[in-house]
Amino acid sequence: MLPSLSRRGALAALALGLSGGAFAQAWPSKPIRLVIPFPAGGSTDIVGRLMGEKLSQGLGQPVVIDNRGGAGGTTGSDLVAKSPPDGYTILMGTSSTHAIAGSLYSKLPYDPVRDFAPISMIGTATILMVVHPSVPAKNVAEFIALAKSKPGQMMFGSTGNGSISHLTGEYFKSMAGVDLQHVPYKGDSPMTIDLVANRVQVAFGTAVAFLPYVQSGKLHALAVTDAKPSPVAPNLPTVAASGLPGFEALQWFGLFAPAGTPKDVLARLSTETHKVLQMHDVQEKLQSLGIQIAGGSPDQFASFMRSESIKWGKIVKESGAKVD
């Protein structure tokens, strides 16, 4: 009798194991939602749509883009943080949502570390410092002198409170000792429209957002915020070499899932992301946008994010920036 019960127990355990394996193998069995926490048309949206299109091919299911802009990317990020951890809702996070927001917002509705599972870093983007052509400054030093002669009269636009463009502007104000009025927008597109219209005079933003306007003469680029000259704009000096030693700001992009997402699902997402980043056409597209491909394991991404959080936390404290 006992051997019979043992056999039944063994068969039951085997059945459970097979059903668990079948469940794991069945993922994904329906479309996956990729939340972009910024409006359509901006750099995060462009990168997210490219990744979504390619991931859908590897995963065998549609990857549906869901733009949820607002509050410097925190609205969409919070949505993903509170979504079921089943692999069917993921986020295109950025330095704004996962390195800056934790220090900038006094009541952030999510924890950038605790509430997310890193999948993979996508890459880093060159940030340009640009001005409207009517601004009589040919370089960073001239702009600083001009801004000091007009305290509080010049306006700098950003892609939203708490965004990388906002904090880079605050960082610049603090290091340069200038008084610029901050005007937040809901993404790259509306900010760029007003910058071209001279409603704001200066902004810090990604090359993908600004380069077409710089090349057409509608905007004038003064510098890049990278630590060294960027391959996407090799003729532009760095802000650091233009009178503000040590100045460096990078925009980065990466994929996240809600904390608690099964490890096998995270591993599959990470593997497929790395496959996408190795595609020649993807590499060409990202590089044309001024994005340096990163990749790496989830653990490497988590480590990088922690170091970025420490860096931006210091910048937020020194600049006195705060969003409630």
Automatic annotation (TrEMBL):
Pfam families: TctC. The keyword Signal applies. Gene3D superfamilies: Bordetella uptake gene, domain 1, Periplasmic binding protein-like II. Keywords: Signal. Residues 1-24 form the signal peptide. It comes from the Bacteria. The keyword Ribosomal protein does not apply. CDD domains: PBP2_Bug27. PANTHER family: BLR1237 PROTEIN (PTHR42928:SF5), TRICARBOXYLATE-BINDING PROTEIN (PTHR42928). Belongs to the UPF0065 (bug) family. This is Tripartite tricarboxylate transporter substrate binding protein. It comes from Ramlibacter ginsenosidimutans. The lineage of its organism: Bacteria, Pseudomonadati, Pseudomonadota, Betaproteobacteria, Burkholderiales.
